[in-house]
Amino acid sequence: TSAKVLPFDPLSGFQYWILPGNCPPDFPHQELHNRAFDQWRVFWTEVMQQVAGERVRTEDFWRQRIISVLTRGNEIAAIHLYSFFNLDSQAALAHSYIRNYYDEADLNHLRSLGVNSVMSMEYLTVNPEFRNRTLGFPIASLLIALGAQIFKASGYDAAVAPCRTDLKVDVRAAELGCQTISESYVYHNFPVINMALLKNRLRPHPDERVNLAIHDLWARRRDISGFPFQTIENQTKKSA
Prior knowledge:
This protein is of the alpha+beta class. Helices cover 35% and strands 25% of the residues.
């Protein structure tokens, strides 16, 4: 008989870390940051080589303002990367991330929604040992939802991401209230669609287990990023 998959318990050794992308000298959690980078690099080197026949841009990790890491004990379960862009800045518009993923129509769509600043959500990375089919819990959805908490606390107008449609990342994003801002297209041989999350569109996840985990992990988060977050209440509430 197959082993029984236990329900996810957010108190059973999981910890949510908010790290900087570029660590200062004598950073107290450099070992965790190094392990996160190594796991991210190995994961995306394999993905990019298999799917696109290309090399991962390792500097994309260092340029991030925030690296979010979900751990259980000494294991890294998942990683997500976030940068911040002022769309009134010509330097920001010239950045390779903006130029590569968002054309003028996408930017005009964002501006029509009152968006002048964005938080990018990039390189969603889930350790294969912590995927839904293994753990019995949607860790990818959990990390995206925790990223929405970071966005909510950031003071920026929208969170944006090119979402892979073959892996249903767009479906997971839509569950939180994300809306499409582009036509579907192919980038690095990945089928993607650009999506945006506005603060007034953010809603609880349809899986109550995810909401409970968000509430617990966000309350116990270890924020050592140095990012000037706004003071906010926890954005998730238990369903009636």
